[in-house]
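We emphasize that the prediction below concerns an isolated chain of 273 residues; any contacts that depend on oligomerization or on bound cofactors are therefore not represented. The input was used exactly as deposited, without trimming of termini.
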Amino acid sequence: MPLVTDNAYLDYQYADSEKLRIRQDAHRLYSERKDNFMEWVLDLLDPQPGERIADVGSGHGIYHPFLARRRARIVAVDASLGMLTEASATARRDGLPVSAVQASAEKLPLADGCCDRLMANHMLYHVPDKIAALREMGRVVKAGGRLLVSTNSEENGARMTQLHAEAAEELGLHADNRSPIADFTVESGEPLVRSVFPNAELVIREDAFLFPTAEAFLAYYASMRIDALMDGPADGSHRPALAKIVQRKAQAIIDAEGVLRMSKAVGCFVVTK
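Result of the prediction step, given as a token string:
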């Protein structure tokens, strides 16, 4: 079973926001493009003042301040109680108009047409039944509303995949070189989305990481990719040795090239009902 749909691994990843925040911080600090990614996404979603926006797979609510500035009302939906607890605490602290619902994307406990717009950012690869989830998203958005689903290109992180494979080989382990989100990349996700929403528009954003230090790259790598093994020990004992080798290899690249550059194109499927 792929890690991204394994319930035990998802509990490890998303019981709280620590590992997710590491990845989000990397995007904020080391992106080649300097315009704000979340504002770019919301420009495509185009929420209007007073509208009700469902954020499916909301995590700890990284989009919520940006939605609140656009005077939207937010329904945060996530399968993780830990994530929703953090999102709700932040909303209370900052006075954000957020209501939280714990649910899977395949069965949203929301009424038909109750939302003006819906976004599902970088989350459908965690969902076993993606078609059911897409249909549910369409159901809860009113006629004339808009949906946005985002994911990464299958080529994202190719350099990290290579370094991980080389490090695993040194340790006599077998890396899983498949994209961790292979079931819902831009490329594999397009036919799925269009099977439910034939009029979906795909908008691509080209970008890359520019990691200035091996430590910065290592933090990102260790937040998830480090566990992509065909035969990895369940206790996580592989992590320190793999991290040491990957850090050495990343430092060699930075010494030679100045930075470690790694592509990270994103695609947004935008649907107007």
